Amino acid sequence: MTSDPIRTAVAGFGLSGSVFHAPFIASNPAYELAVIATSDAGRQAKAKDRYPEATIVNTPEDILALADALDLIVLGTPPATHFPLAKAALEAGLDVVVDKPFTVRSAEGEELIQLAAKLGRVLTVYQNRRWDGDSLTVKKLLDAGTLGTVTRFEVGMERWAPEISKAWKASATADDGGGVLFDLGTHVLDLTLRFFGPATVTFAEIQARRPQESADDDVFLVLKHESGVVSHVTINLNSHLPGPRFRILGTEGGFVKFGTDPQEPYVLGGGLPTDAEYGVEPSQNHGTLESNGQRITIPTERGAYPEFYRLLAEKLDDGGAASALPAPVDPADSVAVLKLIEQARALA
């Protein structure tokens, strides 16, 4: 790494900015957490307390006004703002990380990719669930061929969340990027494409069950991959009894895994990404592999959200957009996810 840190601004200090971005930027010496934008007085106080060296401003536009003194902006703002803010940031000469969903419409994502290429800027999307411990465990099993030829992939993110905690989420329609399909759905769809390649949505149920829900909170999709694998995708905020996080069936065995990755709750509880116990899942939550009637426990890989910012720093230090190193997440992958969402809505 060079001696000059990557001067970074985080736009938004809700769950996204305060849990998924700021702690990982601040704990990586390749970065300087220079600016945080939030208009909420309580969040401003929390940001000042946790990151006293950072400048606190009110809006993302205030960050853009400081673009000459910055290198990178991270957008943890509501989905409908992602396209205009990312476009403005690229035009201001900044490299850009966009939290999911990348944009609300796939055409907007494609426009941003073209703009970033034209301007020679790095553009990437924060698909952090690629570095969940259970996702890393599944990838390890698939890469090793442990399950043989996979025929069915089941992935789910379910929880009991009867109340909508954020005002913007309660009012956001699907056209605004609201709903669980644009939220948790972007994670699980990203994983299906990452593991098994291009796919088409062949069946879609999209429901809004909570009285205050303006978009959707209960989704089931079936995908047919060009590789031959069939994926069943479940995202549900109305589940008293969550199903498996992963269930995979193959010609040589099956794997099932329950539970939630521990990284988010660990940071929410005050832990740091640099702690020795960060990302380590309790053994009682490990998955099960069964083959020929024999069951064994598969220890979960250590969760690794810090990898996103490590890989991004390597690319930026190596020359940014001109570097041959890949971005942590290719934004074209996220456009492919948005196209699946558009297919699903058309079917439903």
Descriptive account of the structure:
The model has no long low-confidence stretch (mean pLDDT 96). The chain has 348 residues and is α/β, with parallel strands linked by helices. It is globular. The longest helix is centred in the last third of the chain and has 17 residues, at 331-347. Strands 8-9-10-7-11-12-13-14 form an 8-stranded mixed β-sheet. A 6-stranded parallel β-sheet has the order 3-2-1-4-5-6, with helices on both faces. It has helices spanning 15-26, 41-50, 60-64, 82-91, 106-119, 133-144, 167-171, 184-196, 263-268, 306-317, 331-347; strands at 6-11, 31-37, 55-57, 72-75, 95-99, 123-126, 150-158, 199-207, 218-225, 230-236, 246-250, 254-257, 287-291, 294-298.
In short:
With about 350 residues, the chain is of the alpha/beta class.
Overall pLDDT: 96
Taken in chain order, the helices and strands follow as EHEHEHEHEHEHEHHEEEEEHEEHH
Total beta strands: 14
Percentage of β-strand residues? 15-25%
- Give the overall shape: globular
Look at the helices and sheets and give the structural class: alpha/beta
Distance from N terminus to C terminus (CA atoms, Å) equals: 49 Å
Low-confidence stretches: none
Task: Determine the number of helices (DSSP H or I, runs of at least 4 residues).
Answer: 11
Please give the share of residues in helix.
Answer: 25-40%
Which features would summarize this protein structure in a list?
alpha/beta; 348 residues; 6-stranded parallel sheet; 8-stranded mixed sheet
